[in-house]
Structures are given as structure tokens and as C-alpha cells.
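Researcher: Quick one. two chains, 745 residues in total.
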Amino acid sequence: MKFSRVTFLAFSLSALVFGVGSPARAATPLPSSLVQRADGVLRGKTTAALLEMHIHTKSQDRTYTLSYWGDDRGGTSRALIKILGPARFRGHGTLKVGGRLSLYDPSTDGITVLSGSMLGDGWMGSHFTNDDLVKETDLARDYHSRELKTWAANVDGKPVTFHRIQLEPTPQAPVAWNHIVFELFTRDDVVIPTREDFYRRATDAAPDRVLSFEDLKQMGGRLVPTRLTMRPANAPGEYTELIYKEVRFDADVPASKFSDQALRR
Amino acid sequence: MLANFTLLLRIAGRNLWRNRGRSLITGAAIAAGVALCIASFGIMDGMSSDMVRSITDTNLGHVQIHAPDFSARPKLSLAFDQARVRTELAAHTVGVEAVSARVIGWVLAETPRQSASVELVGVDPIREAAVTQLDRHVRRGRYLPSAATPWPEPKALNADDRALDARLTQEQAKLAEAEIAALDGAALTPPQASGHEAAAETRALLERLAPDPSAPPPLLLGDRLAKRLHAEPGAKIRLRAQDLDGNPTSAAFRVVGVVHTGNAAFDANRAIAHIADVRHFFSLGDRAHELTLRLRVPSEAPRVVRALEGAALNRGLSVKTWQELRPDVVSMVQMNSGFTAMLVTIIFAIAAIGVADTILMAVFERRRELGVLKAVGMRPLAIVVLIESEAVLLGLGASIVGMALGLGIDALLGRFGIPLGGLSGFSLAGAAIPPVLHASVTVQGVFLPAVAMLAMSLLASLWPALIAAGTEPVLAMRER
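Model:
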């Protein structure tokens, strides 16, 4: 009965490693649940929003007016982004259904389906990638979270608790980052993200790009950051801002919004 | 001393003549060896230079200039101002026959039946033909016309148009806002009527902002790519990509020709158009990604690179020879000559044994005679020289015959070649193995076997010569 003794040993060891830690941590909020809530701060079961995107690069400055429709209710998450202006880009659209991403170009009435590797490319000349915009990766699902630091501070004159959490991808996660350092704060029962630092390699001293969340406002019945700014490290001075003008959560967005017809309209 | 030497040569010649049959057979073996060596060098040199030409003359040229990271990770943004670099090239570099500037980007090509990822390369048709002879590889249809397609320059919008554009955007935003508010069926469905009007006005603005070319620009396709896309000359192909600023760009091109270079990566992935058309397509202005140089003498590439390096480094560019860009092909050529060297060594070894045998037999037959020579006072060294002279005479004569024979075989192989049959026309690491192997004659490939064979004859006869020199006169003369 040597085998059963070995099995017993393995069981007790794994209980020691995985089991015993959990109840102790339950007293304070788990980092992973904080990450999940912060990551989803601008997402409801469904999301409908009107946004502006400012792109500032060495060679150009441009502003898109966008409408965004998202639906996370079913098994596959779906999203549609349409560019409302200016003329050069009006009518261009991006549709995501599950892992499939389609781009629509009204000047040729053509739909291009992007393959997985193109998810990491910049979206319409911005510093956000296609993946950032349609959120194929889920921080809470694809990453292990580990609390690095927590401290008290004041935001808008009210006391809050800041958390700095290190995110490391799970072995199966289809992500490009070695790790992400996520900064967020909690106040009463809200969790607000403030900053995400994306690192390409384990040894990097500085992040590859930084996403910051600012301009807290009451919008769509929640307190949300309404200005997201992405700054790439390899192009100092360049950035892309995403500004929420209006957002509505959990309304009944019709399924027809996520069809090729809606992408063309 | 000299008289002594000529005397020795005369004796050596007479000795060879005395046993004509044996000398002839050994000579024939040496001549055949030399001829075979020359022929194998010819074939291998021919194959190597065909392989090298299949990459340098279809795409690579002899020297290329890029932004440093471009060869490792080609990116649209790694373009440089080529006009100034090219001016410097023309001013400073001897031995450069032609220069072709290229722009390179990956695009999605769509036909009604298929779509494929394609490497779109923009070239100046005349300059490119001077560097890579691309025009000679057209299999169907024709080569690119030398003039670019007229492509109206984009214009900025005037104040009225900008106001119109802002109004259209605002209207669209209003519509979206109404649609968001109307979710759950709480309010009336938003009006859709103005959508078509906005689309027509947007199209009018777009014609100024991003005009289409006056006609679909001409395009060449690699033959395997053409097959994949089911596109023959005359077909229209839509290309889509992101331009330099990351904006979506698309245009219809017209296939005018299909090329076959034998270079697999080229034939399967490349589409080639006029550089001006591709620059418009990618919004690249006057920039280029690659300057490809053809040299008058290909082997001068390292010298040209050194001459250019200073100026290029100042501009943050890297200059490389084709050998540096394609080390895999270089090592294949080296492997080729390695095999030849092995083959030639075996032929030499067999010939050397033949020579040693002949001379040794001659020495044994003439023991009495050698004994007499020693008895009348000939020194051992003179005997060694005598025997070696026989070997040299034999080797020299046979080598000359062998050279003539080898050159004849080379000439025949150069003319008619060895067809590879079923193996024909495949490529190794992107370098095409030609369907027919042709010999090419090089000075080294002809003289090296002859000289080496002569040296081998000398060496091989050293042992018999030493035996001869050591002959004991009394013992030798007593033998019957």
C-alpha cells in the first residue's frame, strides 16, 4: 500500500500549499476580485457608449468620435465600434464576436477578418491595440494576482485605500505581456483603477506602455474614470486618449447590433 | 650544373620511352584524373554560381542598404530618405553598376475567390530591371510599364468643408446618443433617414482627402502567388493594409504579368508594383525601405560596403553584402565546394598510387643499371633527381593532356548541361537549384587540379626515388 501513502502525502502537501492560505486571506478582499472589479469598471452586462479618441503622434493629431456597443451576457462576448467622424474615417467599424475580429471599410464596402496575431496591432493608428479595444483578454481570468503594496491616501478629499497588484499571466493565457502592475483604489464598495503598467520582459526596469485612468465622474449610474490615456514608452510624448462622453450599462442591446449588417450600416 | 640537369632530363625521357606501354597507361590515368577533377570543379562552380545568381539576380542584388532593424523585423516605419543616400552613392562609389530603391510592406490581397497575405514591393521598373533583371522573369503577360499611374494628391479641406464635416460628425453623434437613450424600447426608434445623405457627402469629402488612382495601378505577381489567388493577367486585385500613420488604406490593382524567378519565397509571396503607386498606397512620401546595388564585379561587394559604410552610418543606415544577408546560401556554396574537394582528393589518391607503382616498377627493373651508375660515381641525390624527373615529365605531359580533355568536357557540359530530370527546378533555402546543371570554367578550377596532380606525382615518386638512391652497387650488379 505504498501507492496510497504517496497519494496521501501529495494530498496533504497540496492542501498545505493551496488550501491553508485561502481562509486567512479572506478577511481582506482578494487581489483577484479587486482586479476583476477594476478591470470591469467600464463594462456592464451590456455597455453602450459615446466616446472621443484623441491620437497624438510625432506626425499627426487626430480625433475620432466613436460609438461603442458591447454585450457580455452570452457565452461569447461581442462588441461593435463605429467611427462617426471625421470624414476620412466615417463609417469605418470594428466588430468582435468571440475571438473573431472584423474591420469594415465603407469606401470599398469590404469586410476584413483579422487573424489572432493582428489583435496586437494598433487600432486605426492609435496606441490602443485591437485587443485593448475589444477586450479579448480578461485580467482576472488570464492572470494570477499578487498584492505588492497597499496604502491609504485621499482622492477628491475622501480617504481611500490604494492597492498595487502584480499580474502574471497563467500558462495558457494568450497574452503578450510578461507581467502587468495594476494600481487601483477602493472606497466604500467601489473599486476604481488608476494605472496599468505593461511589461514586455521580466527584467525590464520600465514598463513598455502605461495606461492611466483619470477624471472620475458619475456616469451611467456608476462612478467611473472617464479619461483613459495610453502612453507607449518607445515613443515619448506620444499618447492616445479615450474620453467617455456618455455611457449606459446593462440596457437591452439588441443582438442585431453585432452582425455584419450593423457593421456596414 | 645546367648541362648535368639537361642530361638527367634526357636520360629520364629515354627511360620513359623505353617502356612506352606502361608510361602511356600511367599517363592516361593521370590525364583522366585531371580531366575528371576539372569537370567536377566545373559542375560544382557552375551549380554554386547558378544558385548565387538565383538570389542575387532576382531579388538580393550584391549589396543592400536598410535601416538597421529592417532585415530582422521589416516594418513600414523603418523607411529612410533614399534620394540623398542615392546621390552620395553616385558621387562616391566606383564599381556600382545600378541602384534600385524599393518600398516593402505586407498587405492583404483579395480577389473574388481568394484572399492572401502578400509582400507588396514597390520598384522603379527600369532601375529594378537593371539590378535584378526582373523583366526577364516574366512568364505570362508583360513587365511593369515604366510610368507610374496618375494618382491625384490628397488635398486638405477648406473651412466650409471642415464645417460641413464637423456638422456631419455631430449629427452622427446625436443619432448614436438617441439610439443609446432608446435602448429597452423606452423611447421612439431613432430616425435613420439622413444616413444616406451623410454617406454621399462623406464620399465627396473623401475624394479630396484620399483620392483613388485614376486607374487600377499595374501589378506583377509571383507565379505561385498568382496560382493561390487564381489571378492571371487582366484580373483586378484589391489590396488592403495600414499605411505609415496606421490608417486603413485600400486600392484596386490590375495584374499585368506573372513572374517566375525560381526563388520560392519570392514566387509564393511577392506582388510588385511601381514604386510611386506603392508610396501613394502606404503614404510613404519619397522614402524607401531598401536600396539594392548591382556591382560590375560581384566579388567586390566587401570593398563597396567599406566604401559606403561611413556615409551610411552617418545616416543611421546599415550596408550589407549579399553574403551577410544570406549566410545560409554562403554555407551551402561552401558545402558544395567541400564535397568537390573530397571527390578530388579521392581521385588524386588513386592517381598517386598509380604513379608510385609505375615508377617503383621502373626502379626495380633497372637495379643493375642504377648500380652501374652509382659505381661510376653518380651521387644518391642525382639519382633522386633523375627518378623525380621521370615523374615530372610523365605528370606534366599527362596533366597538359588532362587539362585539354577537362576543358573539352567543361565546354560540352557548359553547352548542353546535365538535366536533373524529376529533381528539376527546386530550391534550397530560397536559392534555386537550376533544372539543368551547367559547368562554368574558372582559372582556379582548371589549373588547381593540374598543378596539384603534378605535385602529387612528385611526392608519389619520392619513395621509389629514395629506394633507387639507396641501391648498393655491388649487390645490384651481381643480380642477373
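The longest strand of chain B covers residues 96-110.
Researcher: Thanks, that's what I needed.
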